[in-house]
Design a protein that fits this description.
The complex is a heterodimer of chains A (about 325) and B (about 270).
Chain A (H helix, E strand, L loop, with lengths): L7 H9 L6 H13 L1 H12 L17 H9 L5 H22 L11 H8 L6 H21 L14 H13 L6 H5 L3 H9 L8 H6 L5 H26 L3 H22 L1 H23 L11 H17 L12
Chain B lengths: L6 H4 L8 E9 L5 E10 L2 E6 L6 H8 L7 E6 L2 E2 L7 H4 L2 E4 L11 H11 L7 H11 L15 H13 L5 E5 L7 H14 L4 E6 L2 H7 L2 E6 L2 E6 L1 H7 L9 H12 L8
Parallel strand pairs in B: 3-8, 3-9, 6-7, 7-8
Antiparallel strand pairs in B: 1-2, 1-4, 4-5, 9-10
The chains are: A mainly alpha (about 325), B alpha/beta (about 270).
Chain lengths: ~325, ~270
């Protein structure tokens, strides 16, 4: 910051409340005081010392206006500082009861303001209940898999790499065992979250958000990432518990997310989510439940197709990224 | 000491009008042209955007806020054309916008919400607390700053909306029906605030209340069926109306006269 500090003469004159100080000098000093802690301390010291000897300032030369100030400071002004101090004390005495009456800011222990502030950069507050619902649905699917009629479908301990999982899945699907709900739900769960993050019905501040400079693809991706950051770990834990490997659902999950965003940039995110979930229910979910077989799309040989869809989705999202900064995508 | 004036503040403006539209057409929904061939130039001052319901005021304001893209014609804001694809980030940092339906998060406190909006508007991090406090004080909500939004009355929520619109010290301020829900005293205070803001910004206030325009606006933009019917000072609009035109004040009579002249205003509603 500044290397030059206000002269002692100016500061003492200011502390005494000298009426003879030039207006531009007062102005410059106040501007300097706002930014300079050192000079504020000196000012506070000057108001504390009530002796008129402080007013005598030999070291004030060097700064413009110092000579003038020194002459002002040299004039005996015995009533100056004490009267200012008395005024401050009186104002303080008047204010104290009001300050005491003002309620101190409430400390929110469970949900501190700083956390809420940081979280709002990633999620809208209205997304939290949605994420809660998604986690509950995942847990419900997990419970059904573990204790429901579907139990018994095991693909082995799902901690292996893709190649390892491949052999296990081959064995699993060959046995014709029942299908895992977790596996069936996993790909579409984040789609709900994406819809919640960028839709008119679920985000009351959608129009304000859309008009902000930060609106656009990177804000959508930020929110999508936070949805995935919640959903994917829960699915991973669930998959580990039921033995469904991540290799089976992770790629469809990401492919659906990117398709939701890509389609969303054309027809609006909530409509895209509804469309994708309907397609999923009709093409994969219903036949799988009806026949109790793992749909071929969710076997490991489906991976290249999902990879292709993912890549296409990302490409479309990138090509249409400017669509996210206007109102249409909130539909 | 830090300098509070930077090069960008001192640079001369490179545009004649803050808002300049030529042959502007904007779609509302799929088919309807809500703004249909508008030519408009607006500089600093308070501009009252007046017109019957369904005249296309909200669509125009949305286009000015860059959340709707023009279908045809050109729209230049602060010298930057908005017809091109792109996010207009630098431009949007200098726009303040209060939508007609001001949606907010009930769980946020006033301060948290305005802070959140300041973050969305890319106000530099170090300036956010000060800018938020200033905006909240200007709308007279300093004593409720740490209350949750859900505890506020309708008028207060509207004032939070104004606070978030001015938090980034915009050069273009767009307010869509800002006086809805404000009581008469608050309206007076709001008009003062508008005039204060308009000394160095282009303020566009959409309203259907003629008295708001009479009291606060330097300029009236009368708008019907997506087209410009009249633009000029309120006095000029008032002088158009005669005793034969419906209305309780000269300005209302002028308003009716203008709409009649443009083939509007025959319908009772």
């Amino acid at each position: 910051m500044s290397v030059e500090h206000a002269s002692a003469g100016i500061i003492n004159g200011y502390a005494r409340g000298d009426m003879d100080m030039a207006a531009d000098e007062v102005w410059a000093l106040e501007a300097h005081l706002e930014a300079c802690r050192h000079c504020r301390d000196r000012l506070s010291a000057a108001t504390m010392t009530h002796t008129p000897s402080v007013a005598h300032t030999p070291g004030a030369a060097g700064t413009p206006g110092a000579a003038e100030t020194t002459s002002v400071a040299g004039t005996p002004n015995l009533t100056g500082t004490p009267s200012v101090a008395a005024l401050v004390d009186r104002v303080w005495a008047d204010l104290a009861p009001q300050l005491a009456a003002t309620a101190p800011p409430r400390h929110r222990l469970l949900w501190p303001a700083s956390l809420s502030r940081r979280l709002s950069r990633w999620l809208t507050p209205t997304m939290l209940p949605w994420l809660g619902t998604l986690v509950s649905v995942t847990l419900l699917a997990l419970l059904l898999d573990l204790f429901g009629p579907g139990y018994g479908y095991s693909l082995g301990a799902g901690t292996g790499t893709g190649a390892e999982a491949g052999t296990e899945i081959g064995a699993g699907s060959g046995s014709g065992a029942q299908v895992s709900f977790l596996l069936l739900l996993a790909p579409i769960l984040p789609v709900f979250g994406v819809a919640a993050s960028w839709s008119r019905g679920l985000d009351p501040a959608y129009e304000l958000t859309a008009s902000a400079p930060r609106a656009g693809l990177h804000l959508v991706l930020r929110r999508t990432a936070s949805v995935l950051a919640v959903v994917v770990p829960v699915l991973l834990v669930g998959g580990w518990a039921t033995g469904v490997t991540a290799g089976l659902w992770l790629l469809p999950c990401l492919a659906f997310t990117s398709t939701a965003l890509a389609l969303g940039s054309v027809i609006g995110v909530s409509r895209a989510a509804v469309a994708l979930v309907s397609v999923w229910a009709a093409v994969i979910l219903a036949p799988a439940v009806a026949t109790s077989r793992v749909p071929s799309a969710l076997r490991l040989d489906g991976a290249p197709v999902w990879g292709l869809i993912l890549a296409l989705g990302i490409g479309v999202v990138w090509a249409r990224r400017s669509a996210y900064s206007v109102l249409g995508t909130h539909r | 000491m830090t300098s509070t004036v930077n090069a960008a503040d001192l640079a001369p403006t490179t545009y004649a009008w803050e808002i300049r539209a030529t042959g502007l057409k904007v779609r509302a929904g799929r088919k309807r042209m809500a703004v249909d061939g508008l030519d408009l130039s607006l500089g600093t001052g308070v501009h009252g955007l007046l017109g019957p319901n369904g005249a296309g005021k909200t669509t125009l304001i949305r286009a000015l806020a860059t959340v709707l893209r023009p279908a045809e014609g050109t729209l230049e804001l602060l010298g930057e054309s908005t017809g091109t694809m792109g996010e207009h980030r630098a431009l949007r940092r200098r726009i303040g916008y209060l939508p007609q339906e001001f949606g907010y998060y009930k769980r946020f406190t006033v301060r948290e919400f305005v802070e959140y909006m300041a973050w969305l508007k890319e106000v530099p991090k170090a300036d956010i607390p000060g800018a938020v406090q200033r905006a909240v004080e200007r709308v007279g909500l300093a004593d409720r700053a740490d209350d949750r939004m859900k505890s506020l009355s309708g008028g207060m929520v509207r004032r939070v909306g104004i606070a978030q619109a001015i938090v980034n010290d915009p050069s273009i301020l767009l307010l869509d029906e800002p006086t809805v829900g404000l009581d008469p005293a608050q309206r007076l205070r709001f008009r003062e605030l508008l005039q204060e803001l308009a000394t160095d910004a282009c303020v566009v206030v959409s309203t259907h209340l003629v008295e708001d325009v009479a009291a606060a606006c330097t300029d009236v933009v009368l708008f019907a069926e997506g087209r410009l019917v009249f633009q000029g000072p309120p006095d000029e609009l008032a002088s158009v109306g005669g005793p034969e035109h419906p209305g309780d004040s000269p300005l209302e009579r002028g308003y009716s006269a203008m709409l009649l002249g443009s083939g509007q205003g025959k319908a009772s509603w």
